[in-house]
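Troubleshooting entry. Yesterday's outputs looked truncated, so today I'm pasting the complete records for two proteins to confirm everything comes through intact. If either block looks cut off, that's the bug. Protein one:
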Amino acid sequence: MVVAWCIMPVYAAVCDGPPNGQSFILFSGGCDRSPQVLPCTQGFIIPALPSPGGDFPTQYYLDFGDGSSPYYGTVDGVTHTYTAPGQFTLKYMAGTQCDLWRQGTYVLNIPAPENYTSVNPGCAPSRPMAGFISTPVSGFAPYTVRFTSTSSDTDAYAWRFGDGGTSPAENPSHTYMTPGTYSVSLEARDSCTGMVNRADRLNYITVTTTAGTLSLSSTPPDATVFIDNVVKGITPVTLTDTATGSHTLLLTREGYDDYTRTFIIEPSTPATISVTLIRSVTEPTTRPSFSYGSIALTSVPAGATVTIDGRQSGAAPAVIPDVLPGNHDVSLSLQGYDDWNQMVSVGSGQTAAINAILVKTAVSTGSLAITSDPPGAEIYIDDSFKGVSPATISGLSAGTHTISVKLQDYTDNSTSIIVTAGQTGRFPVVLQKIHTLSAIDILLAAGVVLMIVVIAVVVMFRKDTKKE
């Protein structure tokens, strides 16, 4: 049972450090008293102080030291039942919403009751396997990522997010405050056996500066765009990666005066700038140079084919180097998923980060597995020949179809059947043989008829003779 004792308010994060101090208090239960009665339930309080900058503790962790699953939650009080005596080392922690933690240990001695007979329940064999996913893996700072553990045979977790933040939660959310590329690791542990397994994802999270949208046009067009002395493309152009705040714009075009001004980007308000260039009567000034940029792509699921400006460029995840500054048409395609497409702006010497979440293509067709006894029959669906049995016919639109199965010397079999999208229906057919008379059968039959006629004539002749 978890007991809530102190819930701290949550304010805007400073992220300057972990809690400034933490206490460990035993209350109720008295498992450390002697003589002892087992099992006993012990209560713990693990309150903590705010960080020096004022970040309050918002999450707590306590490993009870007896091989049971640790406690993780948002309250600083918890109870736990011990079933055996011994010396238990408890590990306790308190963390801020920035995943910065203070930790400590406490040794709890539980004496054995009189006439106590020890029972060693043992641990079931366990091999933890660590694994995790997150969606998505790139965005603008401050950027919150939800991580989901896919680990097996584990009940304790130790995350490292690459920016100094950690968490003992199974499925934590972590906020990256600073742009950069971060590696993430997860240690999965079985508390009873103590076995540990670790999963690492290098350069897994990409965080860029908060950006807004900027649309630029010029008269005449085809002017080179510099923002803060970085080439961003040729007018007209729409940029989606311009950081919020104040910037310097420079437009240059052969035969025209340079145009320069400052502007401000707001995170939620698209900016539009239209410029009329003036023909130059003087020599152009020295202009900034530019260098190639790159595009870093990931896809969920991985393996999507990457196409940039109509040219295939490998499969995601990938980093596409030597990309000219400006706007580029990026497409991702993967069998069974809808195509993904987006216009991406790349700055001089900069890397544009993309994480594409692909959507499964809606299934509108099904299949039929057709068998016949005997095999080798021709298959027709809606009067269209589809092959010879046995065969599986795919790509059939969902709905009702007419199935005909034909084999020489057998009666045709025709029926209607409903095809369900995304499923394979089964259609077994037993064909009925057509019995035909051979030449010998016909001669034999004619002979029998002739004999019957002859016998009839003889009988009639004898009757006539008797009458005379």
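Protein two, checking that the full record survives here as well:
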Amino acid sequence: MRTTVALTGASGFIGGVIARHLKETGRHVRGLVRSSGQAQELHRRGMEPIQGNLEDASSLQTLVQGCMGVIHCAAAIRGVSREDFYRTNVIGVSNIIKACRDQTSPPRFVLLSSLAAREPSLSPYAWSKSEGESVLIREAGDIEWSIFRPPAVYGPQDRVLLPLFKLLRKGIGLQLGPSHAKFSILHVDDLASAILYWLQNGPPFNIFEIDDGFPGGYSWNDVFRLSKSRLHLCLRIPPGMLKILGKSNEIFSRLLGHVPLFTSGKVAELLHPNWVCDTTHVTQTLAWRPQISLEEGLRRLFTSDRLMPSQRD
């Protein structure tokens, strides 16, 4: 019986948690990494590192050989244009699918997408995630696959939402979208458990939207209320200011030579009024239920080392 699972993005936030869950269930984890330093870190954590990238056919063949499943988490999240995301989020999916199809017994395949794929016209990132899904559906052949579309994912090692939660712990609520907007959210441990549910025995050829089960999604006020923080200040950044900040960040990033995260495309995503998941399909199909509410997730986060104040705070 094959027990090895191949994992891209193994050194990242979500990939690292998925790897931990896999190991706790007795799976051997083989992770794709770019650098020797990342390879050493994966080895220290009890995984088998494969050094390479999504453009290297040889390393991808080594990664997936003999695996019972492949979980593709690696993705580009920084960029301004479609070209910034295309190579990783679209061609990368095609390359790893080809490596899987070349196997005598192809592994089951999980693509970690994003709820943003539901609105591909909003941003280059959203477009790239939608295109990556299309590539999988079009090129998978006989491979059994599933696509998971999580909303914002949070947890102790997250870096994207961490600044907002640090402010919230200090009593400052920072609102980065319209007051009428509703959105879903998901703890990283629940995402990992759902993916493992499918990998073990879930039916193939499904696209799953997945969140923490909060009906109707959250408003910004819901987040502030559930945090149980004593808010001293609530700051709402107007849409016009967000757009100026996004465009300015793009300009300064070009001058400084780095790839930005906060862009005009990201602002368009923030201003979209509906990022609410419909979890009916995933809960009925997998008989899976989320275990960590936002209130509980924030309680854990606020008592973790990641949000404890340092001497410089």
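Both blocks look complete. Sanity check on protein two: The first strand starts at residue 4 and ends at 8.
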